[in-house]
Write a structure and sequence with these properties.
Chain lengths: 405, 405
C-alpha cells in the first residue's frame, strides 16, 4: 500500500454504483476511485465478477486470485447481491436516491430487463449519471454479438495494421480496446458531472468498444479514406504501415531498439553509413522502406543496444530500448517515477501493481484499498445506507447477498 | 460536417489555451472541444504545429494537408504567435486571466524557460488548471530524451508483448501511447474542473506517455510481477502472450477471424473436431497452445469467414471478422453507428473523419469546425480578448503573428 500523506481528492463525495464486470467498466471506476470517488462494486451473489475466474498462464496470485481482477479493482468496496430479487431491486433503488453515478456493462438490454435501465434510476433520482458500456453500442446488426477486446481490435482495423505484411496480422499484446473504452467512460462521466454542477441535470452516457477503437485509429482512417491508398503492413521491421523508413524496430547484438521519426541524414551519419544518402527523400524512404530497413538494420546489428542508444541519443535521434515487462519494471525512468507499487491483499499477499498514471498538484490520485473479496463490504455499505442489521442478516439468509471473508 | 440539431454542451464556457502540438495534447483538446470547450490553439508563428508537416504514404490530403493533423484538430480555432516575443507574452498572460485551462506538451522545461510555467499562469489566475504532457515526466534520467509513441510502446513492454515468439516483436499499428496520454490529460483536466467547481482552486496536472502506457499494461505487470513467469510471445496465432488456446487469430479460406475466450468444448463441437477434446483443460490449453492453435486453424481454413462466423456466433463463440481500415469503414455496425462522417476543409475539401466516440443524452459531442489553417482565427480571437485592430495589425507587421487564409 502506498503510504503517501493524506491529500484532497478531486471526486470526494461522488458515489458510484458500479455494476460492471470484466475490464472496461472496472478500469473506468478504478480511475474514478483513484480520484477519491466512493466506488460501490455491486457483484453478482455467489461467484462475483466474471474476471475473478480468468487469468494468465493458467496460474493464480496467492494460489487463488486473478491478476486481471487484482489489476482493475483497487479503491473499491464490494457488495454481492442477487439482482433478480425484488428485495434487492428495492434496495438498489433506495441507494440510487443519493448516488451520483451508475456504471454497467452488461450486454445491451440485459440490465434494463432486470429493472435497472436509465429510466428506472432517473425516476428515483433525476440527477443520476448513468453510463452503459457495450461492445458495439445498444442497437444495430451486432447488438447481440459478444463484445470483447481482441474482437474489437480486429473489427476496427488495428489487427490488420499490426505485424508483418508477409505474415498473418497480430493483435496488440494488451487489452487496449477495453482500456480505451474505460477511458471513454471516464471522459463521459466527468464531463457529465461537470455539466451537472452547472445545471443540476443528470443524463445517460453510452460508450462502446468499437467506437472508441475507431476514434483511436482516427489518423489511419483519415489517411486511408482521403488519400485513396490502403495501409499495407511492411515486410520488414518498419513500425507502422503508413510510415516511411527509418521508423521501426531494429536488431542489435543483444536485443532490439526502436527508431522513430528522425532526420535520415543524422541517422546514416551516426551509423557511419554515408552510402544510405541515396534514399534520403520522403517518397523514396516510403517506397523503398523495406530495403532501407534492411540496410539500416545491417548497421544497427553491429552495436550493443546501450552503445547504439548512447550514440544516437547524443545527436537527438528519436530512439529507445525495447523492454520486456520485467526489464521495464527495472527501467531507471520507471523506477524514478515510482510507477510500480504494492498493496496488501488478504489472499494475494503483497501484490505488485501499477500506480496511478497522472500527477495532480492538489488532488493526487492514490491507492487506498486493495481489490476487494466478493461482497467483503456488504454489511458496512448497507449500514451506511441505513439498513438494519436484522434486515441485512435476512438478505444473507435468503441467499440474496454473499459475503466472502 | 455533421448537421445534427443544436445541443447543450457539457463544457460550454470552458476556455482552453492550447499550446500543444503533435498528437497527445491535440487529441486531448479535441476531446474537450467535442464537448463544447472553447479551444484556442496557439501555434508557433510561421510553420505552426509540427504535425502539419508529417503524413502517411508521403501523400497529402488536397495536395497539402496532413491527415494526421486533420484527424486531431477539429473544433479548434487557431492563432499563431511568436511565444518568444515580450509583447506576445504579455498578451498570453492577459488572455490567461479569464481562461480556465492551459495545455502544453513541449519537452520538460522548454515552456517554463519561455515564461509560461504553471507558476507564471497561476500568478495571474489562481483558478487556472495547467496540464503538461511529456514522454517521461518532468524529471528523472530520461527527462531530456525524445518522447514519442513507438518509443514508449517499446519501453513499457507493449512491443515485446506483440507479434510472434519466433520473430521480432512489433509495435501496435496506431499511436496508442500518444492517444492514451491524451485520454489521461482529459481525465486529469475534467477531474480538476469538477474539483474547482467545489473549491474554487486550480492546480497543475502532469501527464506522461510512459506512465499512461504502463497503466494500460496493468494486468500484464500484475501477472508477471506476481506470478513469477515471463510473458513469451506465442509461436502461432495465439492472440496474447499470457493466454491459452483458442484465444487468437485464425485463417479462413478468404481472410482471418478472431476467436476470444469461449468454452473449448463448444468450439471443437461446432468445428466438428471432437478429437480436440484431449486438450480441454486450462493448463493444457496454455501449455500446448501453439499445437492447439495449429489444429484449430486446420479446421477454420475449411470455411469462408462469413460461414464460419455464422456457425460460431450461433453457439455464442466469442468471434469476429478481421477488417482492414477500408472494410471496417463499410462494416454494417460501423455504418449503423455513423462513426465515419465528414467535415469541409478550405484546402482538404470534404474530409472523411471519425466521429466522436461516445453518446450523451443531454450534451452530445459534435463536430462544429474543421481543423484550422495556421493562425486562421487570430484576429477574431484577439478581438474577443479586447485587443484593438491597430494593435493586432502591428503584431502581424512585427512578424509575431501569422495568419493563413
Amino acid at each position: 500500500m502506498t503510504s503517501e500523506p493524506p491529500v484532497q481528492r478531486a471526486l470526494e463525495g461522488v458515489t458510484v454504483l458500479d455494476f460492471s464486470h470484466l475490464l472496461q467498466g472496472p478500469f473506468a471506476t478504478q480511475l474514478l476511485g483513484d480520484m477519491g470517488a466512493n466506488i460501490i462494486k455491486i457483484e453478482r451473489a455467489g461467484s462475483g465478477d466474471m474476471f475473478r475466474s480468468m487469468t494468465f498462464f493458467a496460474k493464480w496470485v496467492g494460489g487463488s486470485e486473478s491478476p486481471n481482477f487484482l489489476a482493475w479493482n483497487r479503491n473499491k468496496r464490494s457488495i454481492a447481491l442477487n439482482l433478480k430479487s425484488k428485495k434487492v431491486h428495492d434496495l438498489i433503488m433506495e441507494m440510487a436516491k443519493t448516488a451520483d453515478v451508475v456504471v454497467q456493462n452488461f450486454r445491451p438490454g440485459v440490465f434494463d430487463r432486470l429493472g435497472y435501465g436509465y429510466e428506472d434510476f432517473k425516476a428515483v433520482n433525476p440527477r443520476i449519471i448513468y453510463c452503459s458500456g457495450s461492445g458495439y453500442g445498444e442497437e444495430g446488426p451486432y447488438v447481440d454479438r459478444p463484445g470483447q477486446d481482441m474482437l474489437i481490435q480486429g473489427l476496427a482495423g488495428l489487427i490488420d495494421n499490426t505485424g508483418r505484411g508477409d505474415q498473418a496480422p497480430v493483435p496488440a499484446g494488451a487489452g487496449l480496446a477495453d482500456q480505451i473504452g474505460a477511458m471513454n467512460m471516464v471522459y463521459g462521466i466527468l464531463g457529465a458531472l461537470y455539466w451537472r454542477e452547472k445545471t443540476g441535470k443528470g443524463q445517460k452516457i453510452e460508450v462502446n468498444l468499437l467506437a472508441g477503437m475507431l476514434a483511436h485509429l482516427a489518423q489511419e482512417y483519415v489517411a486511408v479514406l482521403n488519400l485513396g491508398q490502403d495501409l499495407k503492413r511492411p515486410n520488414s521491421g518498419i513500425g507502422h504501415p503508413g510510415m516511411q523508413a527509418p521508423f521501426g524496430i531494429y536488431e542489435t547484438k543483444d536485443g532490439y531498439v526502436s527508431i522513430a521519426m528522425s532526420p535520415f541524414k543524422t541517422l546514416y551519419e551516426v551509423l557511419e553509413a554515408p552510402e544510405l544518402a541515396v534514399y534520403d527523400d520522403l517518397a523514396t524512404l516510403y517506397d523503398k522502406r523495406d530495403e532501407v530497413w534492411e540496410k539500416v538494420n545491417a548497421e544497427t546489428r553491429k552495436y550493443g543496444s546501450a552503445e547504439l542508444l548512447e550514440r544516437m541519443l547524443a545527436v537527438d535521434i528519436w530512439c529507445a530500448q525495447v523492454n520486456d515487462i520485467r526489464t521495464a519494471a527495472e527501467d531507471p525512468q520507471v523506477r524514478h517515477m515510482n510507477m510500480l507499487t504494492t498493496y496488501e491483499h488478504p489472499r494475494g499477499g503483497t501484490v505488485r501493481v501499477v500506480a496511478p498514471a497522472i500527477r495532480m498538484s492538489e488532488t493526487q490520485p492514490v491507492i487506498e484499498r486493495p481489490a476487494p473479496l466478493i461482497g467483503e463490504h456488504g454489511r458496512e455499505i448497507l449500514a451506511e445506507f441505513g439498513m438494519a442489521p436484522d434486515d441485512i442478516d435476512s438478505l444473507v439468509a435468503d441467499g440474496d447477498m454473499t459475503i466472502e471473508t
